[in-house]
Design brief:
single chain, alpha+beta, Acetylcholine Binding Protein, Chain: A, six-stranded mixed beta sheet, four-stranded antiparallel beta sheet, 9 helices, elongated, receptor, signal, Neuro_actylchol_rec, transmembrane, 5-hydroxytryptamine receptor 3B
Length: 455
């Protein structure tokens, strides 16, 4: 009873029970009853395959058994998005997914001998890679570090990576904001001639041209097509295989139409309304000045929206300049008209005062002709013939002065009427020119918008 109680107490003690289990496992392993097989990583088929492939591999040597046979590199490009279009510096910033595939005759194996492994990943730095570059590169290539490539049992290597590249492009902004740009990405080997490294398309040209699945359509630009061509570049250093992808993109013009064209057209229509004010109205000058100042402020605030280019002037810039010129011309015409009317009124008052004041000579001042006539209460014949001949001559002289003043005033009125008629005709001509220019530009821009939006 005492021995059984001691054994029962021993089994209930956790520390004693754990010690008993360890002793039992060691005894079983020593006698071969229990065997735990933990394979070492070096004994795996993948490890043996990688070691066999890279043990005697030389990445400095082009991977062909027959050196006269060229290594064909298959290229493919997916345009992901257009990040920036710098018309002033003639640069295009895009995000693309780049793929290249080639055969390495030194990296093939029999999959049945290696646990049916048909594809493995190897470090890119451990294998030979073609020296393919993009000729239009103008900045440092930015791409995530992807240090591995896939290799299948037949020796085909697949290398894919996203690239954020800045390339040179001949950008023409004449039709802004309805412009279409065509930028090229040219791939070729920097060192190997076509006898050593040849290039080919990974997909058919039709698939490359119309494939827009990877493109993000939430930017300012939309992708129209990516055409591709193959040619041989001949130079003094030899003939080089070359593949060119032409990326055709089109700008979405709606935001520029709303922010630039429509406000500008509205301001010009407001200035057109000022032509219905009388040409002699002084408030017309203030109104046109306000419109000109408002248009100037609008242009200054929106100057950053129009791309700056040293190659060509955008059509919309010409439109803004013509509108500004018409505003200045209209205001200048109104100022000249007011100045002319002011000078005429001052001249008329001067002649009126001069003629009504009378002349001064050595005989003394003469009376105002109107005052003299006002003082005559009876006809001369009724004054019992007492009027002297000198008085008659003086009256006659005053009448001549009045007649001369009236003739001068009539001539000034006719001259003023002629100037007013000329200015009114000029005002109508300017108004018609406004309508023609605005109509022409509006129809042209709308036609281009409809034409290019539907193409």
């Amino acid at each position: 009873m005492g021995r059984g109680y001691l054994i029962y107490s021993f089994l209930l003690d956790p520390a004693c029970l754990q010690q008993l289990i360890k002793i039992t496992i060691k005894t079983a392993e020593s006698r071969g009853i229990l065997a735990i097989d933990t394979p070492h990583p070096r004994s795996s088929a993948l490890h043996h395959l990688t070691k066999q492939l890279l043990q005697k591999y030389r990445k400095e040597v082009r991977p062909v058994h027959n050196w006269t046979q060229a290594t064909t590199v298959y290229l493919d490009v997916f345009v992901r998005s257009v990040l920036d279009v710098d018309a002033q510096n003639q640069k295009l910033k895009t995000s693309v997914w780049y793929r290249e595939v080639w055969d390495d005759e030194f990296l093939s194996w029999n999959s049945s001998m290696f646990d049916e492994i048909r594809e493995i990943s190897l470090p890119l730095s451990a294998v030979w890679a073609p020296d393919i570059i993009i000729n239009e590169f103008v900045d440092i290539e930015r791409s995530p570090d992807l240090p591995y490539v896939y290799v299948n049992s037949s020796g085909t290597i697949k290398h894919s990576k996203p690239i954020q590249l800045v390339s040179a492009c001949s950008l023409d902004t004449y039709a802004f904001p309805f412009d279409i740009q065509n930028c090229s990405l040219t791939f070729n080997s920097i060192l190997h001639t076509v006898e050593d490294v040849d290039l080919a398309f990974l997909r058919s040209r039709e698939d490359i041209t119309h494939d827009q699945k990877a493109f993000l359509n939430d930017s300012e630009w939309e992708l129209l097509s990516v055409s591709s061509t193959y040619n041989i570049l001949q130079s003094s250093a030899g003939n080089f295989a070359q593949i060119q992808f032409n990326v055709v993109i089109r700008r979405r013009p709606l935001v520029y139409v709303v922010n630039l064209l429509i406000p500008s057209i509205f301001l010009m229509l407001v200035d057109l309304g000022s032509f219905y004010l009388p040409p002699t109205c002084h408030a017309r000058v203030l109104f046109k000045s306000s419109v000109l100042v408002g248009y100037t402020v609008f242009r200054v605030n929106m100057s950053g929206e129009v791309p700056e280019s040293t190659v060509s002037t955008p059509l919309i810039g010409v439109f803004f300049t013509v509108c500004m010129a018409f505003l200045v011309l209209s205001l200048s015409k109104s100022i000249l008209l007011v100045k002319f009317l002011h000078d005429e009124q001052c001249s008329r008052r001067h002649w009126t005062l001069l003629c009504l004041r009378g002349d001064t000579d050595e005989e003394g001042p003469r009376m105002d002709p109107w005052a003299q006539l006002a003082g005559v209460t009876e006809p001369p014949i009724c004054q019992e013939h007492q009027t002297q001949p000198g008085t008659l001559r003086e009256v006659w002289s005053q009448l001549q002065s009045i007649s001369s003043y009236l003739q001068t005033q009539d001539q000034a009125d006719r001259q003023e009427a002629g100037w007013l008629a000329l200015l009114e005709r000029f005002d109508r001509l300017l108004f018609q020119s406004y309508l023609v220019v605005l109509g022409f530009y509006t129809i042209t821009l709308c036609s281009l918008w409809v034409l290019w939006s539907g193409s």
